[in-house]
Design brief:
It contains six helices and no strands. It is an all-alpha fold. The termini are far apart. The relative contact order is 0.08. The radius of gyration is 21 Å and the shape is elongated. It has one domain.
Length: 149
């Protein structure tokens, strides 16, 4: 009887620990989603104001407000795709399709050339973010290799 009670207690403790770990991960994902949503809002605001666009975009775009706004639009678009990816609203196939569509345009390839290394540098241990960035890096590499032929 004592052994049964100990096993039952151990099972309850294990379930509670699993629940806490799952809740913590859900909370982290919720926070990441909120941050990505705020980032999109900031990018939208910057894209609507030429001065803010130049301040928010890549330094090499400082002399071209129109290019800065296009850069910010693409950054917002990629961020929205990242948010969808994190939330499970994009499949691997859909993610690759978005990456390939972005890289099909010269502006998209230039955008990824500017931000790809910086995005890769902040991946850390985040497997979801690594997979997301790799899809775009692979599409960028394939499109620039095909263009060079």
């Amino acid at each position: 009887m004592d052994i049964l009670f100990v096993l039952l207690l151990a099972a309850v403790v294990a379930v509670l620990l699993m629940y806490l770990v799952q809740r913590r991960e859900q909370h982290r994902e919720s926070l990441r989603a909120a941050v990505l949503g705020a980032q999109v809002e900031l990018l939208k605001a910057a894209a609507g104001d030429p001065e803010m666009a130049v301040a928010a975009a890549a330094p090499e775009l400082a002399d071209d407000p129109a290019a800065a706004r296009r850069h910010l639009f693409l950054d917002a678009q990629v961020t929205v795709w990242e948010l969808h990816w994190r939330l499970g609203a994009l499949s691997q196939r859909q993610l690759r399709a978005h990456a390939e569509a972005l890289m099909a345009r010269e502006e998209g390839r230039r955008y990824w050339s500017r931000v790809g290394a910086a995005r890769a540098a902040v991946v850390g241990e985040d497997a979801k973010l690594r997979t997301f960035n790799e899809a775009f890096a692979v599409a960028h590499h394939a499109s620039t290799t095909a263009e060079a032929r």
